[in-house]
Design goal:
It comes from Gluconobacter japonicus. InterPro entries: ABC-Purine-Binding, PnrA-like. This is BMP family ABC transporter substrate-binding protein. Residues 1-32 form the signal peptide. Residues 51-296 form the ABC transporter substrate-binding protein PnrA-like domain. By secondary structure, the chain is an alpha/beta fold. The protein folds into 2 domains: 3-146 and 271-294, Response regulator (Rossmann fold, 3-Layer(aba) Sandwich); 149-261 and 301-366, Response regulator (Rossmann fold, 3-Layer(aba) Sandwich). The protein is 34% helix and 18% strand. It has helices at 3-6, 60-74, 90-101, 114-123, 149-162, 177-191, 210-222, 236-244, 272-284, 311-325, 352-356, and strands spanning 46-50, 79-83, 106-109, 128-132, 141-146, 167-172, 198-203, 227-230, 247-252, 263-269, 291-294, 300-302, 335-336, 342-344, 365-366. The strands form 3 sheets. Strands 12-10-9-8-6-7-15 form a 7-stranded mixed sheet, with helices on both faces. Strands 2-1-3-4-5-11 form a 6-stranded parallel sheet, with helices on both faces. α2 (60-74) crosses α9, α3 (90-101) runs parallel beside α4 (114-123) and α7 (210-222) runs parallel beside α8 (236-244). The chain is globular and about 60 Å long.
Length: 369
Amino acid sequence: MSLKDLTRLPRRRALAALGSSLLLPSTLKAGAAERRFAPIREEDLLVGFGHTSPITDGGWSYAHNQGVEAMKRAYPAVKTLFVESVPYSADATRIFRQFVAEGAQMVISTSNYGDFIKDVADRAPNVAFMECDGHTVSNNLGWYYITHWYASYVIGIAAARLSKTGKLGYVASFPVPSVYASANAVLLGARSVNPNATMRVISINSWFDPQAATEAGAALVDSGCDFLCGIMDDPGYLRVAEKRGVWAAMWNTDMREFGPNAYVSSVTLDFADFYIQQVGARIRGEWGPEGRFLTLGKGVDRDRWGQNVPEAVQKEADAARDRMLAGWSPFQGPIYDSDGKLRVPPGHVMTDAEMYGWSWQVQGVSGLG
């Protein structure tokens, strides 16, 4: 079966497919990579990319593809191939195997495929593998992810100042750690200035379903939410916010064109420098498997503020951002979960690894888990 044939496979997303790829302390490793691949000429390198959605989605896969295009400009002789909408099933394994069969010396999945990619990596020890939102480091497989919770906290501060009701609405995909971390961070930021702020979550069981995201956004507004946010790959609920006269913050890219009056900001992603660095390291024989977080200001950040966000709100939120860039973390105990149980004791500062594996909703969040 060719890559062209595989792109015609139906796209399926199943939480069960994530299985053992959920965060396990024994497999989450970060640090210096062991160099174990020989140098390769730029013109001889073939890199395969597996995307979780269409690269024209305007969101997650689009952001990754922008990084790929930047890498190709930096290394114009490098050859690439890609498959969009890689399903979360055994079909993903076949796609990654096909990359190897076609001669790829480096394979990068732009989402978490767990054992589906690890099994292929184990059988292709001479190929370098990278998995976004992965959790395992092996002899030839590493992971990378963005610490989006800091930018989300900044946006949460603005949300609390802009909301008249203190009721925030969140359009979620699945109850997975990246979504918990995103929703929790927004509300914690909001509660830093309005302790009574709350967040209602609606999950649509997809990362890319514009109709479902639109319907969820409308339902949240109908329930009294006057600030919408989420983790979608499309601007569905931003259009709702524009039409209904409420505020909205987005994810992945600048989407203000779809709701210029409602747009507050976005958690924006930039993988360009990372992909350039990774491919360059592979060419020079310096690449090794490791876990890597792309941090605030270096791969993830808040977008430019929307045209209607008051300057005073911008300055207050950005003051927190400046403190984070200087080393301060707002994710400090005490933090309670939605059942009132103390989860983060006083004095403890949550690590990025802890937030990467967040699996409970903070006090004030409802509907996620």
